[in-house]
Specification:
Elements: E1 13-18, E2 21-26, H1 27-31, E3 35-40, H2 47-66, E4 71-76, H3 80-89, E5 96-99, H4 104-108, E6 112-114, E7 122-124, E8 127-132, E9 135-141, H5 152-158
Parallel strand pairs: 3-4, 4-5
Antiparallel strand pairs: 1-2, 3-8, 6-7, 8-9
Length: about 160
């Protein structure tokens, strides 16, 4: 069963770049005492993720943060080096690019996408959530092949 609105996020370890080096970051440390938007993509450098999903959050980061959001976090089941390169390519300076390389967090929240038919293995469903002090207050999960509810504009509308 997947995480629902009103649930607390489980703890897991993600990887982020700090001072040019990979660092471990617990989900709880990322969200404790903060209002955070977390969005996940099936894969860095993939078409919809690179052409629409991440660019939308880059474009609207300032407006989202103006609504009281402390951090915007992009999660993908990719390694931290890929996430870092993708973030740099996309000018995602205002977004925490977080690697869930082993899918630990994705599995813990029940949003695993089986991409094996495309040669991708297990990845994350496409979603966005608003998290306040560790509790999910809004969850928007896309259906297969759809990109309508987890985009930056939709999240901005509900903030």
């Amino acid at each position: 069963m997947s995480i629902q609105e009103g649930d607390r996020l489980p703890n897991a370890t993600l990887r982020v770049m700090r001072d040019g080096r990979p660092a471990k970051e617990s989900v709880h440390d990322l969200v404790s005492g903060k209002k955070v938007v977390i969005f996940a993509v099936p894969g860095a450098f993939t078409p919809t993720c690179s052409e629409q999903h991440l660019p939308g959050f880059v474009l609207h980061a300032e407006a989202i943060k103006a609504k009281g959001v402390d951090e915007i976090v992009c999660v993908a089941v990719n390694d931290i080096f890929v996430m870092d390169a993708w973030g740099r390519e996309q000018d995602a300076d205002d977004i925490v690019m977080a690697s869930d390389g082993n899918g630990e967090f994705t599995q813990a929240i029940g949003l695993v996408l089986d991409g094996s038919s495309f040669g991708l293995g297990n990845r994350s469903e496409r979603y966005a959530m608003i998290v306040e002090d560790g509790t999910v207050t809004k969850l928007a999960v896309e259906g297969p092949g759809i990109f309508e509810v987890s985009n930056a504009e939709s999240i901005l509308d509900v903030l």
